[in-house]
Amino acid sequence: MIFTIRPSQEGDMPEVLRLVHELATYEKEGDAVEVTVDDLIRDGFGARKLFHCFIGESDGEIVGMALIYERYSTWKGPVIHLEDLIVTKRMRGSGLGSALLAEVVKYGHQLAVKRICWEVLDWNDSAIKFYESKGANVMRDWDVVQLDEAGIKNFLENTNRKD
C-alpha cells in the first residue's frame, strides 16, 4: 500500500479525533475520550500550540497519525513526548507505523531533543515488539502516575483544609 506522511492541518482534526476514538476503543477505554474537534483545533493551531501532529494518508484517506508535544527533563533537557501513534487496522503491517515513528524521530532530531518518550500498555505485545524492534527501551520498572480532573480537585480541596 502506498501512503504519504505530512504535517497535520486544521481540517484534519475530525479524522484525528476519529483515530483517537479508534485507539481508545482498542485500549478498552472507549468512553474516556473527552477532547473535541474544537479543542484539537485550538490546541494544535491556536495562539498557544500545545502539540504537533503528523498525518499518514493513503488514497486521500487519513489512515494514521502521530501526535507529539515538547517537554523538559530535569535530567536531560528538552524532550518530546509521543502521545499517540495510531495506524488504522487495515494499514497495520504496511510500514506506515514505522514511517510515522521515523518522522517523529527526525523531527526530534531537528529540535535537538535529548529523548523521545511514550507509554505503551503492558498487554499490547505487538506494540511492545514493534517499539523494541526500532531500538526503543521499554522500561517495565516505571509506573505511570496521573491525577485526573477529579483527582486534581480532590487534591486541592484536601490540601487547602485546615485540620
Brief synopsis:
This protein is α+β, with helices and mostly antiparallel strands and 163 residues long.
Oligomeric state of the chains?
single chain
For the largest beta-sheet, the strand count, sense and barrel status come to: 5 strands, mixed
Helix count? 5
Tell how many strands the DSSP assignment holds: 5
CATH architecture: 3-Layer(aba) Sandwich
> By helix and strand content, what is the structural category?
alpha+beta
CATH homologous superfamily heading? Gcn5-related N-acetyltransferase (GNAT)
| SSE string, helices as H and strands as E | EHHEEEHEHH
Text of the CATH class: Alpha Beta
The pLDDT mean sits at 95
What is the helix fraction of residues, given as a range?
A: 25-40%
Radius of gyration: 17 Å
The proportion of residues in beta strands is: 15-25%
What ranges have pLDDT less than 50 throughout 5 or more consecutive residues? Answer: none
> How many structural domains are formed by the residues?
1
CATH topology group = Aminopeptidase
Name the overall outline.
globular
